[in-house]
Design brief:
With 325 residues, this protein is α/β, with parallel strands linked by helices. It has two domains: 2-121 and 270-324, Quinone Oxidoreductase, Chain A, domain 1 (Alpha-Beta Complex), CATH 3.90.180; 140-263, NAD(P)-binding Rossmann-like Domain (Rossmann fold), CATH 3.40.50.720. Helix content is 31%, strand content 27%. The chain contains ten helices and 16 strands. The protein has helices at residues 42-49, 115-135, 152-164, 175-184, 197-204, 222-227, 251-255, 266-269, 273-289, 305-313; strands at 2-7, 16-21, 30-39, 59-60, 65-72, 84-87, 98-102, 106-108, 143-146, 167-172, 188-191, 210-215, 229-237, 260-262, 296-301, 320-324. The strands form three sheets. Strands 3, 5, 6, 7, 8, 15 and 16 form a seven-stranded mixed β-sheet that branches. Strands 11-10-9-12-13-14 form a six-stranded parallel β-sheet, sandwiched between helices. It is globular. The two termini are 14 Å apart. This is NADPH:quinone reductase.
Length: 325
């Protein structure tokens, strides 16, 4: 038997159960990974609450982890038992000692990168890769606004922006988070609890506003984000931390300056094993060069996944949080 976190109904952290389950043998094209560390992400909370429906109940939770291949299904040629690996996509169930998933969603981990770092950055780092290198290919010299700049994704974005020569203005909720974002490479920060974000962006940019806005907050920041953009520039809405953006009148994009908007996701970019590998290669190169480092600021035992999610949802965390099986 192997331990895992599952939920049989949607709701608060109390619906999470720590249970013994028989480990699933990998089918054709699959591998089973013995997790050394598991990543915690906001999307996990969306599934637990039912904002995103799980395929069936009871359901496992989580899609990100790192460890060692412990069994290989028929037809898998690029991975073998004992390989050090990491993953950020696939079926729910990473919150577990053992996780079975398609081999095409798993990449080999370079020796220089430890399991905790990988579990703390695969989903977040690949997210920043597609946002900054594919959704819009930043060249350097752009001014961008990034909401939640001290969180897991934001911490990586600040560092990647600095490496690219991009001026990142980050929104934060405290002086401590402002200091963290600036240490990671934010060009400037705005404490949205005390400052008017749009007015502060106007001041910082001498009235020019931003080339792009990256918004993972959703409903609460939608209008603010649009008001921070230059005419004909791009709004990238990639999360719903405050709830989904709904009921949008497309005419607002015209009124605010012929703006563009996109709602991308990791699965839309890392949609083949080849694209996933290319994205991971760039992320791993950034880690190995030292241009990006991962701050594992919180560690919880797997059994305390509910407590970890509460800390994340209430903005008590910085950097990355991992679960240890």
């Amino acid at each position: 038997m192997a331990k895992r976190i599952q939920f049989s109904r949607t709701g608060g952290p109390e619906v999470l159960e720590f249970v013994d389950v028989p480990p699933a043998a990998p089918g054709p094209g699959e591998v089973r990974v013995k997790n050394a560390a598991v990543g915690l992400n906001f999307i996990d909370i969306y599934f637990r609450t039912g904002l995103y429906p799980a395929p069936s109940l009871p359901s496992g939770l989580g899609t990100e982890g790192a460890g060692v291949v412990d069994a290989v299904g028929e037809g898998v040629t690029h991975l073998a038992v004992g390989d050090r690996v990491a993953y950020a996509q696939g079926p729910l169930g990473a919150y577990a000692e053992l996780h079975t998933l398609p081999a095409g969603k798993v990449v080999k981990l370079p020796e220089a990168i430890d399991f905790e770092t990988a579990a703390g950055c695969m989903l977040k780092g690949l997210t920043v890769q597609y946002l900054m290198r594919q959704t819009y290919e930043l060249k350097g010299g752009e001014t961008i606004l990034w909401h939640a700049a001290a969180g897991g994704v934001g911490s990586i974005a600040c560092q990647w922006a600095r490496a690219l020569g991009v001026k990142l203005i980050g929104t934060v909720s405290s002086p401590e988070k402002a200091a963290l974002a600036e240490k990671n490479g934010a060009w400037a920060t705005i404490d949205y609890t005390k400052e008017d974000v749009v007015e502060r962006v106007r001041e910082l940019t001498n009235g020019e506003m931003c080339d792009l806005v990256y918004d993972s907050v959703g409903k609460d920041t939608w209008e603010t984000s649009l008001d921070c953009l230059k005419p004909r520039s791009l709004m990238v809405s990639f999360g719903n931390a405050s709830g989904a953006v709904e009921g949008v009148n497309l005419g607002i994009l015209n009124q605010k300056g012929s703006l563009f908007v996109t709602r991308p996701s990791l699965n839309g970019y890392a949609d083949t094993p080849q694209r996933l590998q290319a994205m991971a290669d760039e992320l791993f190169a950034m880690l190995e060069s030292g241009k990006i480092s991962i701050d594992i600021a919180q560690r919880f035992p797997l059994a305390e996944a509910g407590k970890a999610q509460e800390a994340l949802a209430s903005r008590q965390t910085t950097g990355s949080t991992i679960l240890i099986p």
